[in-house]
Design goal:
The complex is a heterodimer. Chain A has helices spanning 26-41, 47-61, 64-68, 72-76, 81-84, 98-112, 119-128, 131-154, and strands spanning 69-71, 164-166. Chain A is mainly alpha-helical. The longest helix of chain A has 24 residues, at 131-154. By secondary structure, chain B is mainly α.
């Protein structure tokens, strides 16, 4: 476990975000929640594809909280734990669809060597997604990676957290 | 269609001030929400804009992201950041014109890009000592945006601003 680098705010809130260090910057937090809610709930790309990418990122960055969360909307679209189990190294040989495998290759390239995305991968991405969907997927990856790194860099998380479902981020936020 | 701005085929009507905006604006509501979030670091001056700009550019250098390296943030220039200091950024650790706060933040930023889990307690403590708890949260969130969207530019091969 990485020690907490900053002190969380004093609050009685049971909301894990409002009780986290992110709440030390309330205006930033509100703007981030709007951005994240827009990504998830007002997108052109299906939620199961974004969740696939998010979980692959979480496992690569090794963020305990990101690895543990499952968003409800993606589960309802079919991203069950059985599918999640195949988002591991060796996924190429799994029975994931070609579309899902292309997404995972893109996630890996984004995280490891984003300047070296070759013609083959570009062509495959364009065969499965529209340009607008690819912009959304790439922006999603930027946010997923960023959020995972924020959590890791600020520390204070246990090494493992049980897998649990959360409502899909929405904007305006649902009560 | 217009070409060369990115490997994505963009409509001729793509709107925006530069290649990054024209690519990102393919998802207009997402771009608008991103722009409002990313602007807060500068407009609210949550971290010294010179420190922030040095770290933004260093992150872009490490990732070899052309577009973010071609941009200068007006708030940082207004705060006195010069091109000569930017020119020294690639070897900041050998130079004596970077302050202790800038050095602490650059060290943290580099490790954030390479492996966030590898940030040491000492390196984190140096940033918290310089920026405070709330300032550190803002700084780390800014790094996430710089890192993520430099990779966005690399992945989609977004060309530099003319």
């Amino acid at each position: 476990m990485i020690a907490a680098r900053v002190k969380p705010p004093r609050t009685q809130s049971r909301d894990p975000i409002q009780a986290s260090p992110l709440a030390l910057q309330p205006e930033l937090l509100q703007a981030f929640l709007r951005l994240y809610g827009t990504l998830w709930s007002h997108g052109e790309l299906d939620q199961a594809t974004k969740e696939l990418a998010r979980i692959r990122n979480a496992r690569t960055i090794d963020c305990p909280i990101c690895k543990a969360i499952r968003f409800k909307g993606a589960r309802e679209e079919g991203l069950t734990e059985d599918v999640v189990d195949r988002i591991r190294d060796g996924y190429q040989a799994s029975d994931l669809s070609d579309r899902q495998k292309v997404v995972l290759r893109y996630v890996d390239a984004f995280l490891a060597s984003p300047g070296e995305i070759g013609e083959d991968l570009r062509r495959e991405l364009l065969a499965h997604f529209t340009p607008a969907q690819l912009v959304e997927l790439t922006a999603a990856l930027a946010l997923f990676m960023g959020f995972s790194k924020i959590a890791v860099a600020l520390g204070g998380l246990p090494d493992t957290i049980p897998v649990h479902e959360q409502p899909t981020p929405a904007w305006p936020a649902t009560p | 269609m217009v070409g060369a701005m990115s490997w994505l085929p963009l409509p001729a009507t793509a709107a925006g001030r530069d290649p990054f905006e024209r690519v990102f604006a393919l998802r207009p509501n997402l771009f608008e929400a991103w722009r409002d979030f990313a602007a807060l670091f500068w407009s609210r001056r949550l971290v010294d804009p010179v420190v922030l700009e040095l770290c933004r550019l260093r992150v872009a250098q490490l990732l070899e992201a052309r577009h973010p390296q071609s941009v200068r943030t007006p708030e940082a220039l207004a705060a006195g950041l010069s091109e000569s200091r930017i020119a020294g950024l690639a070897s900041w650790w050998t130079r004596d014109d970077f302050s202790p706060t800038e050095r602490a933040c650059l060290r943290f930023a580099e490790q954030f890009v390479l492996d966030a889990k590898g940030i040491s307690d000492a390196d984190a403590a140096a940033v918290v000592g310089a920026l405070g708890d709330a300032g550190t949260v803002a700084f780390v969130e800014a790094l996430a945006i710089f890192d993520g969207f430099s990779r966005f530019c690399c992945s989609l091969d977004v060309e530099a601003r003319a």
